[in-house]
Amino acid sequence: MKFRTLFFTLLIFSLILSGCGYRIQTKKDLPFESIAIGEIKNLTYEPRLQDRLMQSLAEVLMSYGFYLSNDAKYRIDGDITRFSLRVLSEISLTASEYEVDIAGTFTVTNRETGKTYPVKILRPFSTHFTTKDKLVEVLSQKESYTKRALNELSQEIARYIIYDLPEKQGQ
After folding, report:
1. In sequence order, what E strands does 111-169 have?
2. Do the domain assignments include residue 25?
3. 3-state class of 1 per DSSP?
4. Domain count of the chain?
5. CA distances to 13, 43, 66 from 40, in Å
6. What pTM value is reported for the model?
7. Alpha-carbon 51 to chain mean position
8. Which of 34, 118, 154, 161 lies 20 to 30 Å from 136 when distance is taken between CA atoms?
């Protein structure tokens, strides 16, 4: 009886895993081993945004298994073209809901061939937060949600490199 229960449990578990469409990605699935983060320009008025994006990009790329090296064959460059903190709603003439919005243009360059590939980002990255607190709390939450939007932008850049880089498609 125990053997039959164990057998059916393992059978059901294996069917679920094999039919779900997911697969475990390993370092061998990456298109290359190392990448350099080149110049990230901040074309907005938000201070140090390029530094925070470089930090986030480095963390995300390393979490996917890339090595960061200045001598790497591929390099990421880009411009942060938009940063805004907008009020979305107010209550009794006091702003209560905000949106942090970030957009940019980025490229991946093969330094050996000189080919440059634009990173196709389908949408700007925005996060929303609600607060009725004082300005200090709003600024604190703005920093936290800016970090979240930069992380999402970094994730999208990494996704493009892993899955959509034209050079990988040709291999």
Report:
1. 116-118, 125-130
2. no
3. coil
4. 1
5. 46, 10, 19
6. 0.75
7. 15
8. 154
Distance (Å, rounded) from C-alpha 167 to C-alpha 160?
A: 12
CATH number of residue 40's parent domain: 3.30.160.150
Instruction: Tokens for 89, please give them.
Output: 């709603």
What secondary structure letter does DSSP report for 117? Answer: E
Structural domain includes residue 128: yes
Look at residue 24 and tell me if it is in a domain.
Answer: no
According to DSSP, the residues that pair with 130 across neighbouring strands are 97
**DSSP 3-state assignment of 7?**
helix
Along the 171 residues of the chain, how does pLDDT read in single tens digits? 677 787 778 877 776 666 655 555 655 667 778 899 999 999 999 899 999 999 999 999 998 888 999 999 999 999 999 998 776 666 665 666 777 888 899 999 999 999 999 998 766 666 655 666 666 676 677 788 888 889 989 999 998 888 888 765 444
